Amino acid sequence: MAAVTKLQFNPMNEELGQVIQEKGAPTSEEISELGVLKGKTALVVGGTRGSGYGAALAFAQSGASVTIVGRSEASGSKAVSKIMDELPDDDSSPPTTVKYLQGDIGTVASTKDLVERLKKGETRYDYLVVTAAIFPQPQKRNPSPLNDDGVEKSFGIAVVGRFLLYRNAHSFMTPPSADNAYSPMILNVCAAGCGKLGYFNRKLVFSLGWPHMLNIMNFAVGNELMLHKLVSEEKGNSDGTPFQIPIISTHPGYLKTDLHRGQGIFLDFAEGILVHFMGSTEEVCGRREVSILCAIGKKQSELSKDDSSSMVTIVDNFGFGRLMNKYTKKDLEDHGDWLWGLLVSMEAGGNIDTYKE
Q: How far apart (Å, rounded) are the C-alpha atoms in residues 102 and 114?
């Protein structure tokens, strides 16, 4: 269990957040032996491909029942079949169920629809994992970069959709309690901020920049700012209650997947080289992410739920510290209230034109 036991929980003294350095990934047997996930329920939004599929597989192999959310029923059914084929069929294996639920967090309307269906469902989830994201494409490939809400599509998924999902998570997840060890917890994947490498640009929320890689950094930073505001606001949940579900925000590193293709010749070439030498498969990536959740879950069970500094954990697989350093703190001071106002306004169906500059 090297990759799990070597994780170091290092609380930082700067506002919210912790940084955990980690290497490698444990085997599915090692994660299962921890006993953390057996009998639990996991909702994986974006679990049909990429790191989400890997996480869903790791959950199922550890005895958790998994619901995969994705836009395509064909991709969802294929992912469920692949996962079931990977599970041992002897009586000693952990009992688990895997199912698909159609859903999309690309717009306010589609996210609200998903939330309402989750609220009405019989299952209450111990873990929410969100990996759904898209890369903004160059203008010539994507002449309509804005979604139906009027924001840039990748920002709509990585920030707006996730905000609405997390803000309502209390309505479809198991409630925090002393008897419910290691859960509920949220794993926010693929959108950890860029720290000193990036800065938040309000204009890119409503437009496609040149180069479009600026939008990737912008939604990553915006996601981190959103998370900090969510857990620090007095009334972070949609029903006006304080946010009480710990969040782990991470990036899967260099993932071997075709989901990264189409960013332009230079970027496709450069990313391909990095993936070749440093990349990991969907399965390895999923096990690593789930092992992080297990390790932090064990530590979170020892922390006070009233300690807001323990609510967001920033984990970085690229070697950069993603926490409240001076760069992200400046972004939070300059743009945090603006972003929070925009998100709450979009949730209420307000006019976003007042936020454009």
A: 8
Q: Are 329 and 193 in contact (CB under 8 A)?
A: no
Contact 260, 273 (CB under 8 A): no
Instruction: Give the span between the Cα atoms of 51 and 3, in whole angstroms.
Output: 17
Q: Count structural domains, the chain.
A: 1
Query: Residue 235: its pLDDT value, please?
Result: 87
Which band of pLDDT confidence, cut at 50, 70 and 90, is reported for residue 1? very low
Q: The domain containing residue 236 runs over which residues?
A: 2-348
Count of C-beta atoms within a 10 Å radius of residue 94:
17
219 domain-assigned: yes
- Among 90-104, 265-279, 338-352, the minimum mean pLDDT is found in 265-279
Q: How far apart are alpha carbons 39 and 181 in whole angstroms? A: 12
Q: Is residue 354 a part of any domain in this protein?
A: no
Q: Is residue 333 part of a domain?
A: yes
Q: Give ∠ CA 54-55-58 in degrees, rounded to 5.
A: 90
Please check whether residue 114 lies inside any domain of the structure.
Answer: yes
N-term to C-term CA, the chain: 51
Residue 192, both tokens: 């950890």
User: How would residue 2 be classed by pLDDT, with cut points 50, 70 and 90?
Assistant: very low
Question: For the domain that residue 295 is a member of, what is the CATH number?
Answer: 3.40.50.720
75-124 pLDDT tens trace? 999 999 999 999 877 665 556 899 999 999 999 999 999 999 999 999 99
